[in-house]
UniProtKB/TrEMBL annotation:
Pfam families: STAS. This is STAS domain-containing protein. It comes from Streptomyces microflavus. It comes from the Bacteria. Gene3D superfamilies: STAS domain. InterPro entries: STAS_dom, STAS_dom_sf. Residues 17-107 form the STAS domain.
Length: 107
């Protein structure tokens, strides 16, 4: 797993943006959950900039869906490969997905 030096930064809108980088699986879920929970608890929601995510496993899908159920989650910048996987499992019909971080901020 690779992570940015600053795992989350405030967006222009009311929701903070988390921009994880690299591969995320069972071993990195605690780190990602902590980042999401910290941002969501402080701001009532979070924008997940998925542009730098290259791989996720089912534990990350579960984390994303659980986050969606408990707080306001917007997923932005979903790369084509991940978008395809989200579509196969129908996750794209459940989540609030935006083509860019800017569009997620302004909605």
């Amino acid at each position: 797993m690779t992570s940015p030096a600053s795992p989350w930064h405030p967006g222009a809108g009311p929701l903070p943006v988390i921009a994880p980088q690299g591969e995320f699986d069972y071993g990195s879920v605690p780190w990602l959950r902590e980042q999401i929970d910290t941002a969501a608890d402080a701001h009532g929601g979070v924008i997940l900039d998925a542009g730098g995510i290259t791989f996720i496993d089912s534990t990350v899908f579960t984390l994303i869906l659980m986050t969606h159920q408990r707080t306001h989650l917007r997923v932005a910048n979903l790369q084509p490969r991940l978008a395809q996987v989200f579509g196969v499992y129908g996750i794209d019909r459940v989540l609030n997905i935006y083509p860019t971080v800017d569009s997620a901020r302004t909605t």
